[in-house]
Amino acid sequence: MEFSKDFVWGAASSSYQTEGDREGRGDSIWDEFCERPGAIRNGETGEFACDGLRRYREDVHHLKQLGLTAYRFSISWPRIFPEGRGVPNQEGLAYYDRLIELLLKEGIVPHVTLYHWDLPLALEREGGWRNRDTALAFADFAGFMAQHFSDRVQHYCTLNEPQCFIGLGYGTGEHAPGATLKGSELFTCAANALLAHGLAVQAIREASTKSVQVGAASTGKLCYPLHNTVENQAAAEAASFQIDENEWWFSHTWFLDAILLGSLPPAMQALTDCIPSEDWETICQPLDFLGINVYNGIQVDENGDYVERITGYPRTSLKWPVTPQVMRYGLRWLYQRYHMPMYITENGQASNDRIYLDGKVHDLDRIDFLHRYLLELRDCCSEGVPIKGYFHWSLTDNFEWNNGYDERMGLIFVHYPTQRRIRKDSAEWYAGIVQSNGRLL
Ligand code: BGC
Fold first, then answer.
1. Ligand 1 near 14 CB (within 6 A)
2. Which pTM value belongs to this model?
3. 155-160 and 109-115 beta bridge pairing
4. pLDDT of 75-99, one tens digit each?
5. Which of 86, 140, 200, 316 has the highest count of CB atoms within 10 angstroms of its CB?
């Protein structure tokens, strides 16, 4: 078996990174964070981004032309509830209605993420993720959206990468809102995110008329073995879920153990201490799939020690190492621990792509990256791990958070001054892979 017959091939984006149109919504924590001197490379912001709100038809047209059958995007919470709760903004709703109706007309399945980091600023003023009420407000928002979309949307991700919006947003301060909390203050934010997830799952299921598929998108450390021995594989598997004290938040363990296993390992006792015991039942809800965002992994030896990378190791423009083996092994470890069907909800690489003299964007490095990662993903599927689909991050170049616009991750190049879209070579290559359901790899 290679990729299953009904394997889903898609691409992904998020609201703040692509939509622009700041006037049409309430402010989010990213609007404020971007104004902080030095927070974002080149002082850039998501105010205009890719003007996706006005150019979504063109973007859906590209999805269609490339033969993609699914689109993962997120709903901007402050576009629907400018103050985080209260009266919904009808224009905001109408935008998502138009987008979804067009996708359905083109035969492209919408995969909706409800929180991709753009928390309404009004809620941050009340404490943001430090405040338990944010979890309750999120559940109301999630339930409202599920009811509104009714039978038009069947796939929901609650949270995107709590590892990052908690760890980078409230821990290291590299992401919005730029807080640098420590100890129990930071663990409380994580506990509130866990509660938000559980409450949202319940709210989505209650509000939906048709059967819905609900999951969450997780990221974190994954390890792969230096040698292909049983011992080294076991060491890589164990290391993947081990908590690194100073970077506990960058692990799948705290998030997925909590929401899927209903408990946390001893190394996360400090987080357990911040979770009221009566919350556990809510946090640990039955899910339909797991979304995994995979970019790179760490090689370990038989002792579980990290292997130093050779001098000149291949890296993307964000300096992330190219480690395709993480697809094969990391996903296997996740399946063995959580026994859940999975979507790769994000994978791709950053490059400083540019338009060549011939007017095209030749991104051979991205093709090589995807080729290597998809080969390993195929092997992972052949080994029996239930992978249901793959979403390339991202559909178009977009606002790469604190790294601004220099870092391009799209299949489609965006010339920001004119907002012109140009399909990169990788987009055409990916279309061929999609059409052959991976046989051309
Ligand atoms: C996030 C995306 C981001 C990508 C590349 C993921 O952590 O979900 O929003 O653009 O990685 O940094």
1. yes
2. 0.98
3. parallel
4. 999 999 999 999 999 999 999 999 9
5. 200
